[in-house]
Design brief:
The chain has one domain (19-165). The chain has helices spanning 2-13, 19-45, 50-69, 73-91, 93-115, 119-134, 147-165. By secondary structure, the chain is mainly α.
Length: 173
């Protein structure tokens, strides 16, 4: 009976994981897991063929022309940036896929550590967020990355870091 009492004391020392942290971790597990799966599928299937790239570029060019005809020069420029970005990422497909998987594994480990109540997981998650933000700059010129995409990625990363930071008091060293 003493052993049972000791186990009860250990479980009483630590509060249960906050439900908000549980929700954040589950969302992150899903998102990062899908990113890893996507990277693995990308590795398995390889880069787009020249024919597929030409077809995709043609579609982007048509969209840009239509947007220009509607007077939306800014959106047309964004379509052209997407086209150049796609080209740069496709040329470096394997390196980009491997780095993407490795970065997401860092994020997965960070979230797992937070799930387990370790504060180092939060710090690792911040590193993951920063690496995920700069990853495409390894392969694509900054001029070819649409500003809206950068703003979106920074906003989502900052939001999740902020939301995770609300749970720091529960996480231990």
């Amino acid at each position: 009976m003493e052993n049972f009492d000791g186990m009860e004391e250990n479980s009483m020392e630590r509060e249960a994981r906050p439900s908000f942290l549980t929700v954040l971790c589950i969302l992150s597990f899903i998102s990062i897991g899908l990113g890893i799966l996507s990277g693995l599928i990308g590795l398995a299937f390889g880069p787009m063929s020249e024919e597929a790239m030409l077809q995709q570029k043609t579609e982007w060019a048509k969209m840009a022309d239509e947007l220009r005809s509607l007077g939306s020069e800014g959106f047309a420029v964004m379509m052209e940036q997407f086209e150049r970005m796609l080209d740069g990422l496709n040329k470096n497909h394997y390196a980009n896929s491997v780095i993407s998987i490795l970065i997401r594994m860092v994020g997965l480990l960070g979230v797992f550590w937070m799930w387990k109540g370790k504060k180092n997981g939060f710090h690792l998650y911040i590193i993951f967020s920063l690496l995920a933000l700069v990853q495409m700059y390894f392969f694509v010129s900054p001029a070819d990355i649409p500003t809206i995409m950068v703003i979106w990625n920074v906003s989502i990363s900052a939001l999740f870091v902020f939301l995770y930071s609300r749970n720091l008091k529960w996480l231990s060293a």
